[in-house]
Amino acid sequence: MRPRLFLAASLSCATVLAVAHAGASAPGGRAPNMASNGRQPHVNYMTECQGCHMPDGRGIAGRVPAMKGELYRFLDVEGGRAFLVQVPGSANSKLSDADLSALLNWLIPAMGGPAKGGFTPYTPQEVAAYRGKRMVDVVGTRANLIARFPAEAPRTN
Ligand code: HEC
Q1: What are the sequence ranges of the domains in the chain?
Q2: pTM (2 d.p.)
Q3: What CA dihedral angle connects 93, 98, 101 and 106, to 10 degrees?
Q4: Which UniProt keywords are present, listed alphabetically (predicted)?
Q5: In CATH, what is the architecture of 33-147?
Q6: What lines the ligand 1 site, CB under 6 Å?
Q7: Of 34, 35, 78, 85, which sees the most CB atoms within 10 A?
Q8: Ligand 1 atom nearest to CA at 88
Q9: Cβ distance 20 to 30 under 8 Å?
Q10: pLDDT tens track for 39-78
C-alpha cells in the first residue's frame, strides 16, 4: 500500500486518474500489479510451475493433472477462464498480475491449445480481478467445469 501511495503522490494528476481508473476496471477493486521480474514466460514456468506440472505439462499421476492437450478446454466453459487464474498454483504464485497473464498466454498454446490469436489473451487487469476473488472449493469447481467440457476425445485423468 505504502509504495503505491507514494507513487500516486509523486505522479501528475492525469496519471493519478489513469491509475484510479485501472483500479476501478478491476471488479475486485485492486489495481493490477504491473511489475515484471524480467523473465520470459517459459522461464517463469520453469521456476514456478514445472516442479509440479513437469516441463512438458504431463503433471504427476494421481497428484497433479495433465495440462497437455487439456488446459485450453477450460476456456470453452463458463467460469473456466477464471479458474485457470484462481487455481492456487496460479493465484498464490509470487508472479505479478502482468507476469502471470503473460505466462498463461504462453502456456495455453504451449499445452496444445489454440495458437496466440486463437483465444482472447488474459490482461493483467483481468488476472487482478480474478485473483481478488478467492476460490474456496478447488476440487469441486474443477470437477464441475470438466463435467461441462464439450464432448471431445475421452480424458485420461
Ligand atoms: C505444488 C504443486 C503445484 C505448483 C508449484 C503449481 N501447480 Fe498448478 N496445479 C497443481 C494441482 C494439484 C492442480 C489441480 C488443481 C488443484 O488441486 O489445485 C493444478 C492446476 C493448475 C491449473 C488448472 C489446470 C487443471 O487441470 O486443473 C493451472 C492453469 C495451473 N495449475 C497453473 C499453474 C501455474 C501457472 C503455476 C506456476 C505459476 C502452477 N500451476 C504451479 C499443482 C501445482
Answers
A1: 1-31, 33-147
A2: 0.83
A3: -100
A4: Signal
A5: Orthogonal Bundle (1.10)
A6: 48-49, 51-53, 64-65, 67, 70-71, 84, 87-90, 93, 95, 103, 138-139, 142
A7: 85
A8: 18
A9: no
A10: 999 999 999 999 999 999 999 999 999 999 899 999 999 9
